Amino acid sequence: xxxxxxxxxxxxxxxxxxxxxxxxxxxxxxxxxxxxxxxxxxxxxxxxxxxxxxxxxxxxxxxxxxxxxxxxxxxxxxxxxxxxxxxxxxxxxxxxxxxxxxxxxxxxxxxxxxxxxxxxxxxxxxxxxxxxxxxxxxxxxxxxxxxxxxxxxxxxxxxxxxxxxxxxxxxxxxxxxxxxxxxxxxxxxxxxxxxxxxxxxxxxxxxxxxxxxxxxxxxxxxxxxxxxxxx
Length: 231
Description:
Layout: H1 3-8, H2 12-53, H3 59-68, H4 75-91, H5 98-120, H6 124-152, H7 161-229
């Protein structure tokens, strides 16, 4: 008796459980592939942007470049664009002092960081849910299959192993499929969560460093204005 024949001859409830688990497994593998591809591109984009940022290029020129040829996978680029745009806008205001400019700039970068966090963490809750619930869904199929097998013995005068073995076997297949769906989802979730945390830490470090650069620019501008005013 093959595994395929056990699945075909299983009860409707057990087949439904298997179908649900198989569907969850397919969706999980698709999301794992998608997350892996996106995170790989994001890491490459991070390295490329940091190389350009720390090359000594003028920030205004870099801002023009990233606006002309934006990279949607570069979180640092998006944070830089949001921060520099807000910084330039606030500096044009005649009443804006350095502290107000930096407060607005940091708020803008913080919002951009939260958007990047949402993009990086997309689909991770689904993987966590599949990893935690699939074994229990499979266990439900197992319990139902075993219960169905023993209930079938009520109509038999003599209970033998050959009568209950197929039902128990099909029930255990549900558990196996549940584990097959859960294990990759848990591994993917743990791996991607670690990668996301590392990327977010890099983004926060860049944001702090960029804020320091803009802070010096803002205060130097304030000092020049005060000097010109004779203060």
